[in-house]
Automatic annotation (TrEMBL):
InterPro entries: NAD(P)-bd_dom_sf, SDR, SDR_fam. It comes from the Bacteria. Pfam families: adh_short_C2. Belongs to the short-chain dehydrogenases/reductases (SDR) family. This is 3-oxoacyl-[acyl-carrier protein] reductase. Coiled coil: none annotated.
Length: 260
């Protein structure tokens, strides 16, 4: 299937590792021109060197999503060159916390980085998509927006707000040929999940291998997902072929979420 991504221009946030890197690589392999942004430019350049011949170009850009001025600078640069066709909003997760223990300052700081700043960046890049009558906006959240995850109160709450924003935006821009969708990863084997398992092991006093094995047993497929499996869905939703899919939440979790 030709996904129609050749010569499309994509901005992928959080692209130095994990899900962001996998999505950026997947888009590049389909021929898209990718602007890969993250705090660690070196890590982006390292994986970009390993892309197969014929892949689209990758431009590594250093970006801290807590730096509002840097976000506007990136938007200015992209818009000066015509903007982007595809935007993948992907942010790091907040530290583990219970709802009882989360402080006001925790909520404000993490909402700024995880939500408010991507809302702002999307708003900057959206007009060019609407003018071209084509665009794809994907935002990576978590399965916790449907089935809240214990000790991840900050993530559950902030990412749920992002879902509300995404659905509202999808309705507003659908007639302009711009689709807006949410990707919900379950236990995908990334560094972030390793960090969460390590934190859980520390709290419980169990070996991290035991914690990971127990978590895998709760997944109907009996294993963690591979980042490439997650990225495959993202690449499809970013493509020409997904032109009638908008305002949705898509799970990539091996069946772990229990609700229908």
């Amino acid at each position: 299937m030709d996904l129609g991504l050749k010569n499309k221009r994509a901005l992928v946030l959080g692209a130095s590792r994990g899900l962001g890197a996998a999505i950026a690589q997947g888009l590049a392999k389909e021929g898209a021109t990718v602007v890969a942004a993250a705090r660690s430019r070196d890590k982006i350049e390292a994986w970009a060197r390993d892309l197969p011949a014929g892949a689209g170009s990758v431009e590594a850009h250093e970006l801290d999503l807590s730096d509002h001025a840097a976000i506007d600078d990136l938007a200015d640069r992209l818009l000066a060159d015509g903007g982007v066709d595809i935007l993948v909003n992907n942010t790091g997760g907040p530290p583990p916390s219970t709802a009882v223990d989360a402080r006001r300052s925790d909520w404000i700081a993490n909402f700024e980085t995880m939500a408010a700043n991507i809302f702002h960046l999307t708003g900057r890049l959206l007009p060019a998509m609407r003018e071209r009558k084509w665009g794809r906006i994907l935002t990576v959240t978590s399965s916790g927006v449907e089935q809240p995850i214990p000790v991840l109160a900050l993530s559950n709450g902030i990412r749920s707000a992002i879902v509300g924003w995404s659905k509202t935006l999808a309705t507003e821009v659908a007639r302009d040929g711009v689709t807006v969708n949410i990707l919900m990863p379950g236990r995908i084997h990334t560094q972030r999940v390793v960090e969460l398992d390590t934190a859980a092991a520390s709290r419980s006093g169990k070996p991290v291998e035991e914690v990971s094995a127990a978590a895998a047993e709760t997944i109907p497929m009996g294993r963690y997902g591979d980042p490439e499996e997650f990225a495959n869905m993202a690449v499809f939703l970013a493509s020409e072929r997904a032109s009638y899919v908008t305002g949705t939440k898509v799970r990539i979790d091996g069946g772990a979420t229990r609700s229908v």
